[in-house]
Write a structure and sequence with these properties.
3 strands, 1 helix, alpha+beta, binds zinc ion, three-stranded antiparallel beta sheet
Length: 83
């Protein structure tokens, strides 16, 4: 089993075991998956993936996508502080 550390690509929060996270493939389209949908070893991280810690950050990611004319690619800002 992998012990990889993930941080939210929006707010930077580290993933805890009990968190309810999503993985998102974002480019010209958004593909949103529940974190455990593929299991820990079933996800291909060689494909650019955003790791999202919760609904608030997911909504922010979607808003970034809606605001970007050609998709957000790998250029999502992570500098905003979420309290
Ligand atoms: Zn977050």
């Amino acid at each position: 089993m992998r012990q990889e550390q993930f941080n939210c690509d929006i707010c930077g929060r580290p993933k805890q075991a009990s968190n309810h996270w999503w993985r998102v493939r974002a480019g010209n389209a958004l593909h949103i998956y529940h974190w455990d949908y593929f299991g820990e070893d079933g996800w291909d991280d060689s494909i650019p993936t955003k790791h999202i810690c919760g609904q608030e950050c997911l909504q922010r990611l979607v808003q970034n996508f809606l605001d970007a004319p050609f998709g957000i690619g790998s250029t999502i800002s992570t500098t905003e502080d979420i309290q």
